[in-house]
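Please decode residue identities from the backbone states below.
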């Protein structure tokens, strides 16, 4: 029963965190002149608009059962890079908005955990759920900043690459699904020490 509740809360926190992540992409694009996400009705925190049945439900459950971590995604918020005012750096700004909101959420809940006693929040339920929010949002931010397509970090990489090297990006995009599968199933353990460090740094607690 306790494990079922933990999985349920974990999936719920993941869904809301990836929804915030995707909506941030849409707002970042809108601020740069692209109305695509707004016209598609995706500038909303209503999870129904963003849930991907596979990425938001099935994959998180399977990944938790297989490896003790929760991984998943929402439906990407659409945007048109040709509508952005700066088509060289614009996509990078759209991309970085997702991890930025996840880090912001991690900071807010992490500092609440750190000062829970002073804030009168030191209940077992808050500490448990708050720690889950911080952990999942740090994990999402760090994972998405990895510079492999189609993750957000790849868009940042493309923005800083010299123009003469941009053909590399085209080759990487062709194998993006393979890159992500390899990372999720074989290399994800390499980012966990970073996640644990950031968790402890923000909350003052060991994970």
């Amino acid at each position: 029963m306790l494990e079922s509740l933990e999985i349920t809360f974990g999936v719920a926190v993941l869904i809301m965190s990836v929804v915030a992540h995707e909506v941030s992409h849409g707002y970042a694009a809108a601020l740069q002149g692209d109305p695509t996400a707004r016209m598609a009705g995706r500038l909303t925190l209503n999870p129904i608009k963003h849930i991907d049945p596979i990425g938001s439900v099935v994959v998180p459950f399977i990944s938790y059962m297989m490896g003790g971590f929760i991984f998943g995604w929402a439906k990407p918020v659409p945007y048109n890079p040709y509508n952005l005012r700066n088509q060289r750096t614009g996509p990078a700004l759209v991309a970085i908005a997702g991890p930025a909101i996840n880090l912001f959420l991690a900071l807010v809940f992490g500092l609440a955990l750190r000062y829970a006693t002073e804030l009168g929040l030191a209940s077992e339920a808050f500490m448990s759920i708050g720690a889950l929010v911080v952990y999942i949002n740090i994990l999402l931010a760090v994972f998405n900043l990895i510079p492999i397509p189609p993750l957000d970090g790849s868009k940042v990489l493309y923005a800083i690459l010299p123009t003469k090297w941009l053909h590399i990006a085209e080759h990487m995009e062709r194998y993006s699904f393979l890159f992500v599968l390899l990372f999720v199933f074989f290399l994800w353990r390499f980012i966990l020490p970073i996640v644990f460090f950031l968790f402890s740094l923000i909350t003052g607690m060991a994970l």
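Observation: The chain has a mean pLDDT of 85.
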